[in-house]
Design brief:
Blueprint (H helix, E strand, L loop, with lengths): L3 H11 L6 E3 L6 H14 L1 E6 L7 H12 L2 E6 L2 E5 L11 H6 L1
Parallel strand pairs: 1-2
Antiparallel strand pairs: 2-4, 3-4
């Protein structure tokens, strides 16, 4: 679980990021979850967009991803989700040391 200070730091870090994963009309299927897993492992902090043509609810998507992938939802705003998870690979851990110090 993230503290409010950690959340604020991650929100600021994510501000300049472009959404990498898009959830479209096929919804939150396994290939999308795999993409999210890989992106989180490589970057630790990502933006996910729910496109206009999806039937998915942003709150349900966030809950499913938190449960299945073990990531933290930093922010839900409109149709954008900001997700954070410490990378399993040591060389990709650029943000997590800073987050732990907060």
């Amino acid at each position: 679980m993230l503290t409010s200070k950690q959340r604020a730091f991650l929100k600021a870090e994510a501000h300049s990021l472009k959404p990498i994963v898009h959830i479209g009309k096929k919804g939150l299927n396994d290939p999308v979850k795999t993409d999210i897993r890989h992106a989180l492992d490589a970057r630790e902090l990502i933006k996910v967009t729910l496109l206009q043509n999806t039937d998915e609810d942003i709150h349900e998507v966030a809950d499913i991803l938190e449960t299945e992938i073990g990531c933290d939802t930093v922010l839900k705003i409109g149709r954008i989700l900001i997700l954070y998870k410490e990378s399993a690979k040591k060389e990709n851990r650029k943000l997590s040391p800073k987050v732990k110090m907060i």
